[in-house]
Amino acid sequence: MDYFYQKGTSLTTLVLLHGTGGDRHSLKSIAAAIAPAANLVALEGAVLEAGARRFFKRHGMNQFDYESLTEASLALENILLTVSQTKDLPLEQFVLLGYSNGANLASYFLQQRVTPVCSAILFHPMALGGTNENFSLATKNLWLSYGAHDPFVTASNFKQLILQLTQRGAGVTCFRHDEGHRITVAELAAAEKFWQTLEKTQNRP
Ligand code: MLT
Predict the structure, then answer these.
(1) Ligand 1 site, CB within 6 A
(2) Are 39 and 89 in contact (CB under 8 A)?
(3) Distance, C-alpha 171 to centroid of its chain
(4) 28: helix, strand or coil
(5) Residue 24 in contact with residue 4, Cβ under 8 Å?
(6) Cα–Cα distance measured from residue 145 to residue 183, given in angstroms and rounded to the nearest whole number
(7) How many CB atoms lie within 10 A of CB 13?
(8) pLDDT tens, residue by residue, 105-161
(9) Which of 43, 57, 174, 200 could form a disulfide with 68 if both were Cys (CB 3.0 to 4.6 A apart)?
(10) For 54, which DSSP code?
(11) Which residues pair with 123 in a beta bridge?
(12) What number of CA atoms fall less than 13 Å from residue 202's CA on the CB side?
């Protein structure tokens, strides 16, 4: 998994995780809209599915390869640690920002690995299965979006993900729209609002 770092002017670091078929540039305009001053770490998935870049393998629609998912989760953890150490940026002030496949990796990582990273903005994630960890997620503050006509994420799957997170103590804010898997203007505005609250409540120096 490759990553590209861009220095900002704030202490916050946004970690961008693209959807299937995306690349390191895919979420830059969203990052610029939400947090223009943040440092950026833009990741690029190493798995190619019919030429489309992703973070972990699957064997068909929603049939995930958990070995590949675990590898991707560890690779993500290593990148976050490397960036934090080499750029002297606190992991507590990293915010994961993922869409679809990237949101799934971010959500899996937070559920599987004990990490000081505590915030995430996840556009259209789903419950993946494959993790039996049950350590507390009480320090996490997560924002998740869902589309009522999403062809990939069913209402019950999204509900299951929310339950998985809240049962372990995570703070969860949900945004729902009546469309499919795409990010709408209202959705982006809601993510930006969450970001602003996060900035205030986390008492960043
Ligand atoms: C996944 O494979 O992570 C989900 O199905 C979302 C996507 O289509 O990438």
Answers:
(1) 19-20, 58, 62, 100-101, 104, 152
(2) yes
(3) 15
(4) helix
(5) yes
(6) 9
(7) 25
(8) 999 999 999 999 999 999 999 999 988 899 999 999 999 999 999 999 999 999 999
(9) 57
(10) E
(11) 99, 145
(12) 22
The residue with tokens 């049950």 is 134
The residue whose CB lies within 8 Å of the most ligand 1 atoms, and thus the one to mutate among 49, 61, 104, 122, is: 104
Q: Over range 26-43, report the average pLDDT.
A: 96
Instruction: Report d(CA 86, CA 53) in Å as an integer.
Output: 27
Cβ-in-10-Å burial (0-12, 13-18, 19+) of 56 comes to buried
Alpha-carbon span 205 to 10, nearest angstrom: 10
Pocket test for ligand 1, best of 62, 153, 161, 181 (most atoms within 8 A of CB): 62
For residues 95 and 64, give the distance between their C-alpha atoms in angstroms, rounded to a whole number.
Answer: 25
pLDDT of the residue at 82: 98
Query: Closest by alpha carbon to 43, among 10, 83, 11?
Result: 83
Q: How many residues are present in the chain?
A: 205
Which position has the token pair 């799934």? 104
Cβ neighbours for 137, distance < 8 A, ≥ 6 positions apart: 110, 111, 165, 168, 169, 170
pTM check: above 0.90: yes
Tokens for 30?
């969203």
Closest by CA to 104, choosing from 68, 80, 120, 128, is: 128
15 Cβ neighbours under 8 A, 6+ residues apart: 41, 43, 80, 94, 95, 96, 97, 106, 117
